[in-house]
Amino acid sequence: MAKPLEGIKVLEIGQEIQGPFAALFLADLGASVTKIEKRRTGDPSRWMFPKMIGGAEAKNPKVSHYFIAMNRGKRSVTLNLRKPEAIEIIKRLTAAYDVLLTNYRPGVLDRRGLGFEELRKVNPRIIFGQASSWGPKGPWTTRPSRDILAQAAAGLMAKTGMPDDPPIPAGAFIADHSGGLSLAAGIMAALFARERTGQGQRVDASIYGTLIAMQSLEINYTSVSGLETQRAARGHQFMRGGMYSAFRTKDGYICIAGVHDKLWHSFCRITGIEHLEHDQEISANVVRNFQGYRIQKIMDEIFPTRTTREWLDDFVKADILATEVADYKQLLQSEQAHVNGYLRHMDHPEAGPITVVGCPVSVGGEPDLHAAPPPELGQHTEEVLLEAGYGWEEIDKLRESEVI
Amino acid sequence: MAKPLEGIKVLEIGQEIQGPFAALFLADLGASVTKIEKRRTGDPSRWMFPKMIGGAEAKNPKVSHYFIAMNRGKRSVTLNLRKPEAIEIIKRLTAAYDVLLTNYRPGVLDRRGLGFEELRKVNPRIIFGQASSWGPKGPWTTRPSRDILAQAAAGLMAKTGMPDDPPIPAGAFIADHSGGLSLAAGIMAALFARERTGQGQRVDASIYGTLIAMQSLEINYTSVSGLETQRAARGHQFMRGGMYSAFRTKDGYICIAGVHDKLWHSFCRITGIEHLEHDQEISANVVRNFQGYRIQKIMDEIFPTRTTREWLDDFVKADILATEVADYKQLLQSEQAHVNGYLRHMDHPEAGPITVVGCPVSVGGEPDLHAAPPPELGQHTEEVLLEAGYGWEEIDKLRESEVI
After folding, report:
1. Which residues of B touch A74 (CB under 8 A)?
2. What is the pLDDT of residues B230-270, one digit of tens each?
3. Domain containing A106 — which CATH number?
4. Residue B152 Cα, gap to closest chain A Cα (Å)
5. How far apart are CA B129 and CA B100, in angstroms?
6. Which residues of A touch B319 (CB under 8 A)?
7. How many separate domains does chain B show?
């Protein structure tokens, strides 16, 4: 069966993470994405995080992992949006596209005459996706942001870290990425509705709102109980001690997700703490899993005696919830991630065969195991303009006047 | 305009987070969700995290914040899926529904005769959404999991924490929540495709895959460069020192997301470090923002001299990227979150008026500011069975034989 969004054309006026990642998600589900980039410089992700941090030690020092991550399989068109001809080009493309999405700050496209109200005059079926940091309304609407500010404002930072740490963020840009996923989801809802109504709509999704939603369970705890939680330390706001934690082993770290009553006996046998099996202060479920600083200390001594693999072999056999704490090199070897297309193979024109992150969703059964490389800056400018009905002469003129 | 999924009927056979949260997201976009729960006990989120941790201090000690968070606005039907009559009921409902989604482990519904292949015989338009911990294929497919194990296996745990901490998780169940968002997105793609093909499809989304995708930028760094990153400490894997960090103030914490070259002068003026403005070891962009342990130490001394509010007033005026590190009580007061419907008002039958987490996406402009309460266990069993064509006598019999 074809992919679900096959035939859907997406125009992305975005940069960095949220907009591009939303478009990437749609592309993974079958949409074709044309990315509008600034003339000369392009999306900053082409050069940000000095192309390859690590310099000489890096395998592919000129290849942007960041741009690959967000833009694989897209087409690239360069445009100078300060020129009226460029605005005209976007409008002509809009007429033939299904979705226009942006993570430029709310209002920026409007000021250029490319707001939803303008674009729907050109194409009443167009879906206008506005990604934002803080949401379309309210005092912070046009305030710029970064991933870490969303983590700070949405409460996650205050809840992450050991008791003596300053507030620290989750160690990757999960706010930005998840904000992109939200926008993609909203756009698909609007695509569905359009099939029934014939009308495009405006879709708004923000990073701040998404990160709040990603803590629905926890935030509602405070709103309903009136009580503030403490930071998660090694576990979670509700399980700050005990067996819901990572432990150092002989060669790395293992993570245990609590020990169920029915498995406690096996756990004690495997870890050699049979003498503590009936110790009230250790074994009571709530203590063992939620508040057990004593058992945590004991296990901090025991786990380093064997390798992660040795522990895991025994735990998995016994149905005890455990897994390796993987670093990225270990993750990149994960069979589970590869067979499901969460990691994919790419033949990159400069870097050669590499592994890249794929898509967490498959529709219709078979996940993709391969990913297409990202475009060169402006690689498809002519192709896309020709599709939009521009002739070669016009294209030459647009190039001369530095529109494209 | 109506909500985009208006008229779409979702049957949720789920519990805890991923399945219920996916259904909730669809509900927020207009779908009507019927939740199937176990007879007597219902979804464990009705009683898990001892209904209200904190006991006597809690405002509403009998109200489950967890169940509210995942199930507001749904209908509840109780069913004993071990009884053949219950399987028959699900099939009859399937005939009239658009989506059936589950986060029971892959294979569980199949063994009860409720797999996608069976259900599409009843309704070829049904979309079957399978949430999972690890994905539909591979060695870990049926291995159970918990949020912290996804964080461990997907690499996030290894990247979160201060250098001397053990690997620690992001402090909320962001893996479980984001896995639910992925499933909702995949289901909407399939709903869209169904409008064009007339056929339902199977949709798979996993927590593990989602958390990998939420680190696309960072994981691709290691795959492309061949270099492992270090944990994020106060900032990010690429920005471990410097001004991308939270700092203690007189009354809390403030978070700064780096200081741009153009704003460095203002920053020095506001914080009173004019004498360091041209100090190479402090001021060079890469040092200041990515690796500046010296400036971090200096600012750790300066920020505690004023309140968060005082600093923010100056920084926001100067366009310096900064925000408060909010705890949940502070977040719950956020005007920005309320006006965008990221937080909503609920009149709860027992707890009275409360604030709950809303939806990060709005389609068509106006966000909802109100949320409907969650159902009582089995509150809609009769209503839903009557809709499915069962008569009162049959319903009585089903109740007698403990099917419902």
Report:
1. none
2. 999 999 999 888 999 999 999 999 999 999 999 999 999 99
3. 3.40.50.10540
4. 4
5. 6
6. 144
7. 2
